[in-house]
């Protein structure tokens, strides 16, 4: 069974005009540690967790004042 016959649109046409696809090794880097981020975000997972911010948008989502965190 061919997928072209199911959708009645050639797949080459769909992939040609598809929006930007997810790239696991993109050019986006973390603002703090300059490590590559796998999504189009601002912070890597480690820095976002330690700062208590959203990794994608950078908004404060957690108050980490009373947390005992280390960099190790």
TrEMBL record:
One of its GO terms (molecular function) is microtubule binding. The keyword GTP-binding does not apply. Pfam families: Cript. InterPro entries: PDZ-binding_CRIPT (IPR019367). One of its GO terms (biological process) is RNA splicing. GO terms for cellular component: cytoplasm; spliceosomal complex. It comes from the Eukaryota. Keywords: Cytoplasm, mRNA processing, mRNA splicing, Spliceosome. It is found in: Cytoplasm. Its main location: cytoplasm. Belongs to the CRIPT family. This is Cysteine-rich PDZ-binding protein. It comes from Gossypium lobatum.
């Amino acid at each position: 069974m061919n997928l072209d016959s199911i959708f009645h649109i050639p797949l080459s046409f769909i992939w040609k005009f598809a929006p930007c696809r997810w790239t696991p090794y993109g050019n986006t880097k973390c603002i703090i540690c300059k490590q590559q981020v796998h999504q189009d975000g601002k912070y890597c997972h480690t820095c976002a967790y330690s700062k208590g911010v959203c990794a994608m948008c950078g908004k404060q989502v957690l108050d980490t004042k009373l947390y005992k965190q280390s960099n190790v």
